[in-house]
Amino acid sequence: MKETERGEPAPTRDAATILLIRDGANGVEVFMLVRHTRLDFASGAMVFPGGGVDAHDRDPRLIAQMPGPLSDMPADERALRIAAVREAYEECGVLLARPQGDSRLIDAERLCRIDERYAEARSQHNLDIGLVAREESLEIACDLMIPFAHWITPTSQPKRFDTRFYVARAPADHVAIHDGHESVESVWMGAAEICRQADAGQWHVMFPTRMNLHRLAAHDTVEEVLAAAKHLPIVPVLPELMAQTDGGRRLRIPLEAGYGMSEVVVSKDGAFRASDNT
């Protein structure tokens, strides 16, 4: 998508991404994917699993495959959560779903059987998650995802997303791994360590991802993260370019979004620091 002839910003596409987290030996670890360099968005970047909302995610029949308390959720929020579950399954093989009538997530053995039946749709990133849920008698565990952030691609970019970030505990026995197509590498790692390695040039991590890793790194356990997320202000962040400096772009973001700063200087590799004007 490109700007219109009148110079208007490109339209945004609704998207959802998920921070799958677990307790590790040295604190909270988050699952990250490294995107293929041939892709036209976030090429070569280290990212959380996620992607755009598609038509299947908006199917009203999905209400019957969600936990009862969420059945009256607004349609847009429902579609975003469904998209986050689907993208996590397509991109890394983790499926946040329960057998209907069960309080526990599906185990690795049942997931393996489901994988065999839907391998082609997953590899093509053309999965109808509602069809899977109906045929496999599953409830999509959207209740386990807690809103974590809301970022919108700057108006200067030719391809733009209106992205909601969610956080969820990763199922203990699901093996998360990159798909070998859209993503070529994957890792479980602490948020602060990811940023440290990115600063050393090992990874390319975009600014919004770094900001949310910074938010994640403030907590020592999964329980702490999930408890804190329930009280986060979910304010849309549309970075506004204030100036181009020798050190990078000076951007303004809403202070009320809860990142502890309103102006940041962002380098080419996504590293950031609070601006002196904050």
Helix-strand blueprint:
Blueprint: E1 12-24, E2 27-35, E3 46-47, E4 50-52, H1 75-92, E5 97-99, H2 108-117, H3 119-123, H4 129-135, E6 138-140, E7 146-152, E8 160-169, E9 183-190, H5 191-199, H6 207-216, H7 222-229, E10 240-245, E11 248-252, E12 263-266, E13 272-274
Helix pairs in contact: 5-6
Features:
seven-stranded mixed sheet, alpha+beta, Nucleoside Triphosphate Pyrophosphohydrolase, about 25% helix, globular, about 280 residues, single chain, four-stranded antiparallel sheet
Tell me about this structure.
With 278 residues, this protein is an alpha+beta fold. The chain has 2 domains: 12-234, Nucleoside Triphosphate Pyrophosphohydrolase, CATH 3.90.79.10; 239-278, no CATH class. Helices cover 24% and strands 27% of the residues. It is built from 7 helices and 13 strands. The chain has helices at 75-92, 108-117, 119-123, 129-135, 191-199, 207-216, 222-229, and strands at 12-24, 27-35, 46-47, 50-52, 97-99, 138-140, 146-152, 160-169, 183-190, 240-245, 248-252, 263-266, 272-274. The strands form 3 sheets. Strands 1, 2, 3, 4, 7, 8 and 9 form a 7-stranded mixed β-sheet that branches. α5 (191-199) packs across α6. The protein is globular, with a radius of gyration of 19 Å. Mean pLDDT is 90; it is low at 1-5.
